[in-house]
Amino acid sequence: ETGTRRVGRTVVLQYRQEDGELVREMVAVASPQFQYSPGENDSSVWPDISGVPPEVKVINTIVVPLTVVYVVLATVGIVYSIICTVFNFACRNRTVVQLSSPNLNYLICAGATILFFSVFFVVWPTTDPDTFEFLCGAIVWSGAIGTSLQYGTIQGKLFRVYLIFRKPHKAVKKVLQDWHLLLYVLALVTIDVILLTIVTSLRDVRTSARLVDDEENPPNTDDNGVTTVSLIHDCRSRRDGADLYWLLLLFGYKFVLQIIATVLAILLCVIKVEVKAMDDSRQIQVRTRRKKLR
């Protein structure tokens, strides 16, 4: 009722007893024609009914309302990021933009664009195993690198402002330049790339496309004897729970950086900036009065 049909390749799994354990094995694919896997046939798949298979209908669905909301919001975010990038470039010589470090603003806009674009990887409707495998990796890579570019740059800028204003009465001997902060953000992205490369190379640890039971929609049989089994595509490691540890490591240190940035923002709100060179309100008033007298 809330989905739309798509023609794709669906893997058909069957529960079987092996060494006293219940395991799932791929026995056929539907693309959309129903075809047995190599080594499988009617007798091996349906032994209890003399090799006569029941009618199998595969319907692939996506939740249309939720998908539309995600796509619309992500598109608006991408357009807004592009507008901010164009504004930053066009007004880069203005004082307000120069004080905000326009070169660093490009990194923030790039990170935001990547994060918004990662939404399309999440909602992309496909049942092809290879495509879904790629999407599982793309979601993690784009999320990690986008977060480092955007929030790593924001944290660096906050730290620089804090160093300048923590002791406003004393002159700052060395101020962090833009290239210092660029190196810091590059270091964060490098950490992400190294960690993700190691994880991606481990077949049993990296996130992969898996068909899992839909717990919200358990199997049911209607009055006509038609059984409906609901499965969902999910990104999980082949070894249960293995992906949890490296995801906590990858995004855990980012969470720590977010906490540090939040603390710096609070400290900047508390610090009273009393630098005469920055308080030019009196000079503006004097110049205004002089113009009026003239």
Poorly predicted regions: 1-7, 274-294
Outline the biggest β-sheet: 3 strands, antiparallel
Structural class: alpha+beta
Q: End-to-end distance, in Å?
A: 76 Å
Radius of gyration: 28 Å
- Percent helix, as a range, is 40-55%
* Gross morphology: elongated
Mean pLDDT score, rounded? 77
Number of helices: 8
Number of strands: 7
The H-and-E topology, N to C, reads as: EEEHHHHHHEEEEHH
Strand order of the largest sheet: 1-2-3
> How much of the polypeptide forms β-strand, as a percent range?
5-15%
Structure description:
With 294 residues, this protein is α+β, with helices and mostly antiparallel strands. It is 55% helix and 14% strand. The protein has eight helices and seven strands, in the order βββααααααββββαα. The strands form three sheets. Strands 1-2-3 form a three-stranded antiparallel beta sheet, with no helix packed on it. A hairpin with a 2-residue loop joins strand 1 and strand 2. Helix 2 packs antiparallel against helix 4 (102-123) and helix 5 (129-165) runs antiparallel to helix 6 (178-201). The radius of gyration is 28 Å and the shape is elongated.
